[in-house]
Amino acid sequence: MVKPTTGIEIPTSIVQPSSHIMGLYKKKNIFIGAIGRLMFPEALWTRRFLVAWIGCLLTVVAFDLMWCLPTNPRALAYAGTYINGILLATVLALPAVASRRQWPQLVVLLLADCVLAANLMYGAAFYSSIPLGAYPSVASVLDFTGAVGTRFSWWYLVLPAIAVATFLLMQPADEADEPRPNIIFYTLTLGALALLAGFVAMACGGMARHVARLRSSYNGIVAPVVYTIPGVLIAESLEVPDSISPEQQKYVASWGRNHVAMRSAMGEPADTMARRDNLVIIFWESLESWPIGMKVEGKELTPNLNRMLRDSAMRSFYAPRVLSQAAAGRTSDGQLLALAGMHPTRSGAFAMTRSGNRFHTLPDAMKQQGAKTYLLSGDRPWRWNAEMMARSFGIDHIHLRDSWNTSERINGDTPSDNAVISQAIAKMQRGEVWPDGEKAYVQINTLSGHAPFKIPAELQTISLDGGYPARLRDYMTAVHYTDQAVGRLLDYLRQRPDWNRTMVVVTGDHEALSHWRSALRSDASGARMINPEEYVPLIVLNAPIAGRRAAVMGQIDVYPTLLDQMGLDYGWRGMGFSAVAERSPAFAVSHRGRIVGDTSGFGSNVARHVEDALTVSDLILRHDLLEE
Q1: Rg over CA atoms, the chain
Q2: pLDDT, average across residues 184-208
Q3: Distance (Å, rounded) from C-alpha 40 to C-alpha 189?
Q4: In 10 A of CB 271, how many CB atoms?
Q5: The pTM is what?
Q6: DSSP SS3 for 212
Q7: Do 304 and 490 touch, CB atoms closer than 8 A?
Q8: What is the pLDDT of residue 138?
C-alpha cells in the first residue's frame, strides 16, 4: 500500500496504471510518432527549412487575407484554400532544400511577392486575377501601372517584410551544425500534398472546371484564394475550348428572336432625317458625366463641351446617364459596347483572347457605305491588343503611338492628348487623314485622363484652390486638360467644308472613379459633385435627331443609337435598344448584373431580357457565333 502524508491509504492500482493500459499507451504513442515522422520527417524539417516554410506560408496567408477580406471572405470557407495554400508554401520553400545559401530563398519570395502584389492591384481594379494571356506580354502588364498601380496599398509591404524576416531568421547560429534538408523526403511530402489537393479538386469536378464555375458565378473573385494564383494559371492552361451545347445554341437563337421582336415593338425613328456622310467618334478616357456643365470655384470643368452643348447651331443630342458597362477589359470593353453593341465576356478581357473574332461594327457599317476608316490614338499596338482589335472592327488606317511625336508625355511614355490631337489636326489639314471630299469614319482615343489622373504641373490648364481630396482634384484637372485639346479638335471640324455632312460623337469609354467613389463621396465636396452611379456621357454634335435624354441607358445602347442617327442600313443592330426610338427602356444592367434605372412601364420580361444579354453576349464571344 502507498501511504500518503495525510495518512489515507490509496491502493497502488489507482496510482500505478496496469500493464495493459501502459501497453496501449505505448502503442498509441508509437503510432502517433510514426504518423508524425512520416508527415514531418526530421531529415526534412530542419530548423532552416521550417523557418523558410513558415515564411512562405505566411506569404500565402497574407495574400489570401488582403485579397478576400475587402471583396468576398467566402474563400476562407473552402477546404482548397488551406490545402492549396500549404502546397504552394511547400513549393516556394524549395530553395531551402536545393541550396545551402539563404539568398535563393529570398529571391524566390521577393519574386512571388511581385506577382502577388501585381495581382492584388489588378484584382482591386478588375475583380479578377491577371489572365494567363497577359503574362507573356510583360510590357503590357507593366502598362497597367497607370490604372492598376493606383490601387497600391501600404499593406502590400507586409509581403516583402515577411521575405526579409524569413531570410534573416534562416541564418543558423552555427552553419556547420545545420543539416541539409533531405530532397527525397521533400519530394514525398510535396507529392502527398499534391495528391490531397488533387482529390479535393476532383471532388469539385476537377480544378479547371471548378475554377471556370467559380469565375462564372457570383463567387468568381474567390478562385485565386481557393486555388492560389499559380493554380488559377494552371487551370487556365488546362481549359479545353468548350463547344457550345445545342441547348445554349437554342438559348442564343431564342434571345435573338425576342430581341428583334422587342426592338420592333419599341418603334423606329422617322426615315425622313438628313443623312451624314462622315462619322467622328472621340472616346474620352475615363470621362464621367458629372463634370459636364459643372463649375468649381467659378470655373467650368468642361468649358468647350459646355460651349458646344449651349450652341443651338450644333444640333446636339445629349444623354448624361449612360451606365458604364465595361468590365475587366476597360477601354477595349467600352469600344466593344459602343461600336459593336455587345457586352464584354463575363471573365477576363475579351481583347486579350477574342479580338480575332468576327465582329459587326460601326466602322464596318461605314465601310459598306463607301467610307474610309481611321483610328488615331497614342496607344501602343499591343495595349489591349489595340491594333488587332481595330482591324477586327473594320478599321483599315491605323495611327498608333509610333505615328506621333511623343516629346510631350503624360502617364509615363504616353503622348499627351494635346500632342496627339494637334498632330491629328495637322494630318487632316495635309490630307494624310480624311482629305476633303472623302467619306470617312474617324475614331480618336484620348489617353491623358487615364488613372491616376496625373497631369504635370507645367501642362495643367486649371488651378483649384479648395481643399479637395487629392484624387478628386487630380481627376478634375485631367478632365479640364483633355477638354482643351478636344475643344481645338471640335473647332477644326466645324470649319471643314464637309461639316454639314459630318456627325461628331463624344463619349466616355468607361467610368473613372471605381472603388474610390464611395470614399470620395464621403467628403463634403465629393458628395456635392460626384454621382453615386457610374454614368458616362453620350454627346452627339450635328445630330440628325437632336435633344436630351434624361433617362438611364447603357453603353450597349450607344451602338443602335448611332446607327439610327447616321441612318445606316446594317444587318447587325446590336444587343441594346436605340435611345432615339419611339420607346426604349429607361434602365440598364451593370456588368455585375445590377439593374440601374426605372423599370416601370416595361414588363418583367424586358428586364430579364436585358439581364440575359450578359450571358448571351458571353456565349457569342466565346464561340465566335457572329461568324455564322
Answers
A1: 31
A2: 91
A3: 8
A4: 6
A5: 0.72
A6: helix
A7: yes
A8: 46
